[in-house]
Request: fold
Amino acid sequence: MSAVLSALVRDYAAHTPLRLRAIDAYMAFCAVIALVQLVYCVLVGSFPYNAFLAGFGSAAACFVFAAALRIKTDKRNAHQFSGSPEGAFAEFVFCHIVLHFVVANFLG
Reply:
């Protein structure tokens, strides 16, 4: 098992561009934030339920937006998308702006 994991890490480090690794780190951060919020809700409670929904939904949506950005900026998927990586990043930023307006509105 450890040989498989070490081969996976070695292959990931050797063949994944730095841009995609940064996006992967952001996705891991979003997943950890969502998990922490979910564990907190289960253990402590969800008194301001709309705050929990807004926070958890925001973390989940950020993960999905980052996954879309990763797919669109990967060179192996260039034949499936007509836009540039800069255009994909602009979509990512625009979606985040709209998301955070919605989250702020939902918090009331």
